[in-house]
Amino acid sequence: MIKVIIADDHHVVRRGLLFFLKTQKDFEVIGEASNGKEAVDLTAKLQPDIVLMDLVMPEMDGIEATRRIKSVYPHIHILMLTSFSDRDHILPAMEAGAAGYQLKDIEPDELVETIRKIIAGESSLHPQVTTELKRNQEASSQLPHMLKPLTRREKDVLAELTKGKSNKEIASSLFVTEKTVKTHISNIFSKLEVQDRTQAALYAVKYGLTEDSI
């Protein structure tokens, strides 16, 4: 079972998410929070697999709540579920440790698949979010000086990873083994100085390392 906490200050939103997730046999909603502080406290108490986190909430916003949760429980996934698609909200949320960033207009079935992907260790960015990041990548076009250059093959793997593909799907797309993909991903993490696929995908978009730019 995928154990979920829903954190949103709007009761109707929480009820809607709860109603739908209860129809999924592999999901269990174990708690609800109406603000960021409650989300942090409930997460510490109940130890969910994932928190569906609203961005703007009273007492403590979703970004600070995410930062506090990830600092103590790095294994717990956070999915930002919000109405904001601008860079000023997206980047701080991802940098705080969110594994995904989706808008509230997401279809219910797509939300479920997104949660399953995140639990499986894959990244999840709403297409509108990716578009917004691309619009702003020119302002951050210079790579950090400490960045070690990626090989052509590593760039290929990174481009596929940014699309949210699994290791198996990347291997099939590039006609290599999954073991080779794992090696490339390990090298990418080391060179970009990131810890997971979501951070690598965010880095790729932010600095123009996506498929369109390599």
Number of helices, where a helix is a run of at least 4 consecutive DSSP H or I residues: 10
Q: What is the distance, rounded to the nearest whole angstrom, between the alpha carbons of the first and last residues?
A: 40 Å
Instruction: Report the order of strands and helices.
Output: EHEHEHEHEHEHHHHH
Relative strand content: 5-15%
Q: What structural class is derived from the secondary structure elements?
A: alpha/beta
Uncertain regions spanning at least 5 consecutive residues: none
Which architecture of the largest domain does the CATH hierarchy give at level 2? 3-Layer(aba) Sandwich
How many domains in all?
2
Mean pLDDT: 86
Total strand count, please?
6
Q: Do you know the CATH topology of the largest domain? A: Rossmann fold
The CATH superfamily of the largest domain is identified as Response regulator
CATH class of the largest domain: Alpha Beta
Summarize the biggest pleated sheet. 6 strands, parallel
Rg computed from alpha carbons, rounded to a whole number of angstroms: 17 Å
Q: Could you explain the architecture of this structure?
A:
With 214 residues, the chain is an alpha/beta fold. The protein folds into 2 domains: 2-135, Rossmann fold (3-Layer(aba) Sandwich); 140-213, Orthogonal Bundle (Arc Repressor Mutant, subunit A), CATH 1.10.10. It has 10 helices and 6 strands; from the N terminus they run E-H-E-H-E-H-E-H-E-H-E-H-H-H-H-H. The chain has a 6-stranded parallel β-sheet, sandwiched between helices. The protein is globular and about 50 Å long. Residues 3-119 form the Response regulatory domain. Keywords: DNA-binding, Phosphoprotein, Transcription, Transcription regulation. GO terms for molecular function: DNA binding.
